[in-house]
Every structure is written in structure tokens, then in C-alpha cells.
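ok so i was messing around last nite and threw this chain in just to see what happens. nothing serious, just curious
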Amino acid sequence: PLSFEVLKHGYSKDKQYVFYNNIIIEKANPSTFEVLTSTLWSERDIYDTYAKDNHFIFFKDRTVEVHDLASFHIVKYKYPYVIARDKKYFYKNGVREQSILAGLKFSLFF
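result:
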């Protein structure tokens, strides 16, 4: 359709849906959807990353359950991991680390 827009890192959208590599992301809102980027890497060096809309965080085509949407941001990228955090937890490739120490390990040593 005419509303189709190719975004970065495998994401795209139209007026009704958001896609990751042609898979519909069920809960994503196309009107507020954006791909999260970081100054931690060159845009050409990464494929997988996080994205968000006004209600959810996404990693690839999955919804990520985060503690605090407003404070969520990417802190480190080291292939094959993308580490992010909010004010309470760390997330590795869309999976919440259950302890702050595990999260710190990934952000410091990878």
C-alpha cells in the first residue's frame, strides 16, 4: 500500500501494522512506533535492536515486558548482544535479567 514505510534494522510499517522482517508485531502502534538507536555503534554495524511505541518495548518481533517504559534505553551493544535497561532491570536481547548483578555483568563485561 501507499502508506508502507521501510524503517531501520528490519522494521517497517504501514497505517495498520508494524512489521519485523515481514512478520506483524501484534501489539505495536504504527502511529507512535520508532526504532531505538544509540550512539554506541555505527548504524551499519548492527541489525538487531529494540523499538518502542507509546505502550510497549519490542525486540525483533517480540513484545518485551519492561518495568518502566519511560526510562528504558540501550546501554551496550556487543555482538550478538544488545543490552538495555530501565530504572530497575537490565535486558539482554529482549529478555529481562532477574538480578541487577547479572545485568551489570552483561553491561560491564560484554
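not much to say yet. The two ends are 42 Å apart (CA to CA).
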